[in-house]
Amino acid sequence: MKYIKEYIVPFSIAVFSLVLLCLCKSAPASKLWRGYSILYVPIEADWAEASRILRDAGCDEVIDVENQYVPLEISEKTPEVSLSLLSIEKSDYLTKRNLYFFDKSNRYRICYVPDSQLHSAEKAVFEMNRNGISAGMNGNAAFPFIVPIACLVFAVLLVLFSHKRKSLAILLFLPVFFSFSQAFYSSAVISCLFMYVVYLFIEIGDRTGALLCIFRNVAIVLFLAISFLAAIFNGIKCSLLFIGMTFGVAALTVLLSNYEKFLNSKKMFVSVKIIPAKMISLSTKKSRGALLIFAALTVCVLLSASFSSSVSQFGSASNIVVPGPSYSLESLPTINDYVDWRWETMTFPYISLNGRERFQRPKRGSKIVFTEYDDSSGIIEPLERSIEYNSDFVSNAMAVVDGFDYPALEKFLKVQNNTSTGYVSSGNIRLSLSTIMFLLLAIFISVGLYIVQRHFRKTMILWGRG
Residue 384's CB: how many other CB atoms inside 10 A? Predict the structure, then answer.
């Protein structure tokens, strides 16, 4: 039982924390749509020229408003298509689907590029800008490697500064892995400040009153508070993972302490440090140097975030409000709306203009029965025909979409799988104000503490001895 309590339980907690970080990975993303990227040009730009550049680059599957047709597999001369073009149906699907091709303020024209042609489209955008067309794209966000790299560099330097390098290296593994798992720019602040606290603790951890000394230190409590607040601003998932990581590091600390006690029990003589933790200064040349290194790494992260964020992807259009996945009141059509519209269009010529069917939204089980006439045999004969809104009707509608020989918007909608759609600001994929705030705050506090420790280390007002 003692073995389980001292080794199995803390080891299991640490492993559980690591598994959570592996399963709940997150990274900033600028991609709005599944399988497609947005390409925009100003509304006043020469679209004919932009379209030519796209074709020359090999982008022949771009979904644009000009290559859309009535999304039916039947002839344009049929009454179904003719009536739908007159816009006398209850559904406004054909009108509302055009909203996908413009931003909310109608300042930019939007089209959708399939991922298979993303690289070619990026070349086309570059060529458009060379020709005076201010085009841009919202594609894949690059993984911010600067975040885990900065954390890894800081961890290595802390290990080199420590007199317990092996133990510290084990304890810093989870915070570094956290920066890989939650690769937000503010995660650099979260992980590095947490690692700095662990570094200070490991320096006095084998002395009496070490834990109390750490938590009575104003600066350390401030570091932990900033780390947790930054995690909260990254979302509930990130904050819960931060708590899990903290428990994981605490479990590893207990595991290492128990293992050290076990090794000491095998020795003939064990040295005991008689000076308590509160008598040991946490302000050393190495700890102050670590603060400056942290500040420098945070500056690097901030500069990298500024240059590589999606602000540069959208350029001057960084604040446009574009169609995107959203649970807003201003909803745009989905693939389900297309299926409903198709039902209404196929049945509209055969229902009574005064009947209830005209004003009801179709639902599963709805059925229309009408009479057609056939003269193929030389004699006009009445034939009864029916259209039923069931799974076969929906499957047939999806098959029709797949069979379109042009880049139909319905192909795009089908890939989105009925995702609720409205308008989203391109600002939600930029470097957020809260991220900038935490990065600047970390720089200010680390440099400020360095100055306090460097010039007022005798008074130790903030740092103290516990």
Answer: 8
